[in-house]
What does this fold into?
Amino acid sequence: GDSVTQMEGPVTLSEEAFLTINCTYTATGYPSLFWYVQYPGEGLQLLLKATKADDKGSNKGFEATYRKETTSFHLEKGSVQVSDSAVYFCALRGDNAGKSTFGDGTTLTVKP
Amino acid sequence: DGGITQSPKYLFRKEGQNVTLSCEQNLNHDAMYWYRQDPGQGLRLIYYSQIVNDFQKGDIAEGYSVSREKKESFPLTVTSAQKNPTAFYLCASRDRQGRNEKLFFGSGTQLSVL
It folds into this structure.
């Protein structure tokens, strides 16, 4: 079945540092890929998405490129802020249109 | 504003008791989902429904039940058969017509055992 593997956390960075959170996936067919963000005590919000190979999703300075050859969708940001502290989830939606599969989440803490 | 409302925010269950978590959406979405989140873990699918009066088991359905009598509502009952119910429960919905559409999430219910 489908699966998503995320870089283990927690990740602690200083403000303005470069961020990478790795995500790889296993799926049949041509899944859509997503990054969601969760702030403490809240539900998840979509951060960005990509629907086909070589697509780049971007939002709020975050970017991720759909790499079919390496089955990856790594999240990057050039300069993180304290307000970026949250839990980040990589997810895919495969050919089974009803279900999404999530990674375990990576907790990011950014210190001033 | 359109969105998903989960209630209550916090819920406590006594031994042997069934409790029901509410999820209401006004997004006119066909598909709705219940996920369980444990600390440090990802989301695990409990049940999902792609249309009114129909629902399917997810990966961890044992000890849970749902109903989908109205498009807007997808309540989750945590039964006494669920021996480890303490977790954060998230309800989500999606526009079924758009294959690539994102999930919209509620703000969650934290369930604890007394």
